[in-house]
Design brief:
By secondary structure, the chain is α+β, with helices and mostly antiparallel strands. It is about 40% helix and about 25% strand.
């Protein structure tokens, strides 16, 4: 752990501050990576009462989670990462769909269809 020494404002005594050292995945042992990914994190999935109303099922390596939307829950970090990845993919697919739809509509207008 890294330590910094600073001087307090009201006196001359030295106060030690400990900063958490952050390691990247390639600096961590496999056990540290596993422990990091197993840590519980808080998430809350979007809920709108319509399209995004159903619970979300997540399955990773044979383990299952059924996550209720609109409620803050604690799940292992790797489950949160899977959900984040899924959301990025959904947004990317929606963006691609809009681009292709615009190309199609432009081509139809050009050919008078």
């Amino acid at each position: 752990m890294a330590t910094n020494k600073t001087t307090a404002n009201s006196s001359e005594e030295v106060v030690e501050k400990k900063e958490k050292v952050v390691k990247t995945d390639d600096q961590m042992t496999p056990e540290e990576v596993r422990a990091y990914n197993e840590e519980l994190v808080d998430i809350e999935l979007f809920y709108d009462g319509d399209k995004y109303a159903d619970d979300v099922h997540v399955k990773v390596n044979g383990r299952d989670w059924l996550i209720q939307r609109g409620v803050r829950v604690r799940v292992p970090r790797f489950v949160a990462k899977v959900l984040e990845s899924s959301e990025r993919q959904r947004k990317s697919a929606a963006r691609q769909e809009r681009l292709l739809q615009n190309e199609y509509e432009t081509a139809n207008r050009r050919f008078g269809v």
